[in-house]
Specification:
With 351 residues, this protein is of the alpha+beta class. The protein has a domain of 150 residues. The strands form 3 sheets. It has a 5-stranded mixed beta sheet. A 3-stranded antiparallel beta sheet has the order 5-8-7. A two-stranded antiparallel sheet has the order 1-2. A hairpin with a 5-residue loop joins strand 9 and strand 10. It starts with 7 loop residues before the first helix and ends with a strand.
Amino acid sequence: MRDDRVRETHEELQGERFTWTDGWGGVFPGEPINCRCWARAIVDRDQVLASGDFIPVDASGPFTERNRPGVTQVAPGPGSRVPFAPGPFDQTRSRSRATAKATAKATTKATTKATTKATTKATSAKIPTANPRLKNPPKSPPKDPEFTRGGALSRIKQSDKISVTNSQIRKSLGVADGERFKHAVGVYGETAGANALRMVAGAGGNTSPTTKKILLQHIGGEAEARKLLSSIDKGLEALPKYQGKIFRGLNLDADGFAKFSKQLETGVLKDKALTSWTANGGMSAVFGDDPLGLNTRVILRKQNRAGVAIGRLTSRPEEVEVLHKKASHKILRTEKKILPDGRPAIIVDLE
């Protein structure tokens, strides 16, 4: 829709490629108010075939990038709950489900072997490898209350029980600073807002200039971002801390896990900016989960000392969120574990 209603920042994104997990700095097409943008799925043939949940089909629609070798357009198979993975399009003949499954099995075996070999070489023997597999996994998922999330209603009740209240905010910060803190937490509660604040705080990674522009525009500029960060820091210092365990789920690809392993070797894990945790272990398992099994699920676990429960201040109280300030955490131990959802995870206990 290239009319006079198209925003300049959105027009700049025409034809750009982003992942389904990150979008353009946490913002997705059609998400901003009155946005008419839309996304077209681009998938990697080998990655999708390895999942076993998709089958290739003939491409006949107006897709671009059709004639690139080694890739194919695909469609979800019956009962699939997994979104398309990023990658280029191509057009090929359809293959049988049996051929797809055979290819997936061979690809998964080769990928797992190569990943395990590379990770073992890069990390110490005491650090669990990517995509851990137990030698004799249980026939049925283990019952582990700590990583069972429960229903949405029970999690909302848990969040309501531990969250700071308006009266505590007014008492600790005063009316004016209290309102600023609640506003800042509300901005942080949005994906784009959280990414913007973390970027300004120094945890943005290799953020492209276009993404930086969009993120800063979303929250009103860098100066406003620093004011919001200051309000949050002040609130986290003054407000009562949640007393209990907190968890943080991470979904790491091969590069992310390699960088994480290096931190494990140092014995210290550093947060460069604000981080969101949860008081519900089951939710951390969801946040770090990868149904395709291509990435590694890592769950950080620690006894909270500096985080403030903010469930009553967010639009998603069922996440039982605990906001934690920038910190360094001593790594106590790591272990491989099969969680109640039947899939593996690496549990890292922090001091």
